[in-house]
Amino acid sequence: MRETITTEGGYLSIETGAAKPGATTIVERKGLGHPDTLADHLAEQLSRAYSRYTVERFGAVLHHNFDKLALLGGASEVRYGAGRMTAPVRVLVNGRAAPMCGDEKIPVEEIVEAEVRAFFAERLPEVSEHLTITFNITSNSSPGAVLTGDAVPNRTRWFNPRSIDDLRERRVRLSNDTSLGTGWAPENPFESFVRELVDHFSGESDFTLSHAWCGSDVKLMGYWDGEQADVVLCVPQKSRLVASRAEYVRNTESVLAECHRLAGLRLPRAETRFRLNARDVLEKDELYLTYTGSSIESGDEGVVGRGNRVNGLITPLRPMNLEGANGKNPVYHVGKLYNIAAQRLAQRLHEATDGHAEVHLVSTTGQRLDQPWRILVRLSSSEVETDKVQALVAESLEGFPALTDELVSDGIVLS
Q1: Could you tell me which residues come within 8 angstroms of residue 163 by beta carbon, excluding any fewer than 6 positions away?
Q2: Domain spans of the chain?
Q3: Which are the contacts of 387, defined by CB distance < 8 A and separation ≥ 6?
Q4: β-strand 180-185 against 357-362: which pairing, if any?
Q5: Which InterPro entries would you find in this protein's record (predicted)?
Q6: Do 2-22+179-186+307-410 and 189-277 have matching folds?
Q7: What is the pLDDT of residue 220?
Q8: Residues 6+ apart with CB under 8 A from 251
Q9: Backbone φ, ψ for residue 313 (5° rounding)
């Protein structure tokens, strides 16, 4: 059943009794050291750092976006028990940022460089001394600054404000784009297992703390039919901590044993098959052996928006969109705010109805941020009180100022 309600900004459609997702699942997750994840998280860190600086100095987040950042892989030399970087990783900082507020200069490049180096020092310390940073940061205004005389169009002040009074969003927040935010809940057991397994090998865990050779550029592709799981997993090893081919093989056996242990805990009634480092050719010493633990050392590239979605997964059989949320302005960029809001709203609707929930928020550029053009809520439950759904939707849309503060101050890492 569908009910469509006219809202102040557009339409809210509520579908009840919608079909639940089938058991068949295809899911991918990229770990902390994957080049695309590195690009996503670095772009978000730059946005947070710039936002915090401008809030502290001027009392507001000034206009910026770093969501076109890219990483170009370097080159390395890998040997058993050794290794080194032979060419640097190139960081292309592409985007826009206000360079001044009134007469006060903002040290944009200094902020960015400090954050880039701190990020790699923490995430991939072997790379931190082998970086080339290229700044492609402009302060050009968006389309719409039509000259009709000697007056300066307001739009040209977006990235060159005389004071924070020139920031229109301090009076009303308008969507910066016509875009889509998507969310759904709950995850099925296999999707949760994929998240946990990748984090277990790419982040800090008992396994990685006791197996220092384990690199962080982990990637998983999984298929699940409700009873059987088939997983293709890539887990690198750090060359200076692996003395021989035989030691590399023993380490892969440790990884596989850990995979089966976790599968037994999380998917106890399922048959789970694992294929690890499928491209290895042992007799030729063609192995997933790296100096840094990431393929960014040897030619691979990373680009914002090509990695995990806001919920941390890539799920082609689920509703999803292609927005790159990381690095976007946290005040009015719908590609970030609508995706986070849709995911959180879907989770709340799932908890309220004890069923599957799916949310789509569609913006129109220039329309009020809290008044989407289209809102689609799909619920598997048939017994739903429309008034409660409307109240949860309204509460979510009213929460954008608090979400902005959370993104700036608390340092949420997307995906």
Answers
A1: 58, 101, 102
A2: 2-22+179-186+307-410, 33-154, 189-277
A3: none
A4: antiparallel
A5: AdoMet_synthase_2, AdoMet_synthase_2_family, AdoMet_synthase_3
A6: yes
A7: 98
A8: 211, 213, 214, 237, 242
A9: -130, 160
The per-residue pLDDT of the chain, averaged, comes to 95
Q: Which CATH superfamily is domain 189-277 in?
A: S-adenosylmethionine synthetase, N-terminal domain (3.30.300.340)
Domain 33-154: give its CATH code. Answer: 3.30.300.10
Which amino acid does the sequence have at 144? G
53-101 pLDDT, tens per residue?
A: 999 999 999 999 999 999 999 999 999 999 999 999 999 999 999 999 9
pLDDT at 145 over 80: no
What CATH code is assigned to 2-22+179-186+307-410? 3.30.300.280
Burial class from Cβ neighbours inside 10 Å (0-12, 13-18, 19+) for residue 360 reads buried
- Least confident span in 2-11, 57-66, 218-227, 360-369: 2-11
How many other CB atoms are there within 10 angstroms of residue 361's CB atom? 25
